[in-house]
Amino acid sequence: MVSLFTGHAADEVRAALDRAGVSGKVAVIDNQRLARQLSDGAREVVSVAGADAGSGFAALIAGGLARADDWQERMASWCRAVTPGGMLVLVDRGQASELARRALCGGLTAVEQRVAGRVLVTSGRWHPY
Q1: Which long-range contacts (CB under 8 A, 24 or more apart) does 37-46 make?
Q2: Within a domain: residue 1?
Q3: pTM for this prediction
Q4: What is the CATH number of the domain that holds 87?
Q5: How many domains would you assign to the chain?
Q6: Cα-based angle 76, 12, 44 (whole degrees, multiple of 5)
Q7: Of the N and C termini of the chain, which has fewer Cβ atoms inside 10 Å?
Q8: Residue 114 domain-assigned?
Q9: What is the domain range of residue 116?
């Protein structure tokens, strides 16, 4: 995940989760600092390694998609980790249009973007076909 000053990012991620009404278990991929900042008691937040994401999460927060050549594979594995209708939140540096395109091409719906300092927080729902 992108190395971030996660204060602003955590606020925007929390706002996205709150607006979407996410109340289940939330996974944060490869960013323990962000996971700690999101652990406010409102929902269970766990920090996991990218390869060990597991499944059954109400939401998954990840980054590093903007410059990844394997972004399609990453999106597919992240989508498998959330429940149908679950939320993916992407925290990354990059062009807003490219991150939105990758979110939409990865199968997310109801995509939203927010600026958090130097990073973008892109969120959307995943529904299986």
Answers
A1: 37/6, 37/7, 37/10, 38/10, 38/13, 38/14, 40/14, 42/18, 43/17
A2: no
A3: 0.87
A4: 3.40.50.150
A5: 1
A6: 65
A7: C
A8: yes
A9: 6-126
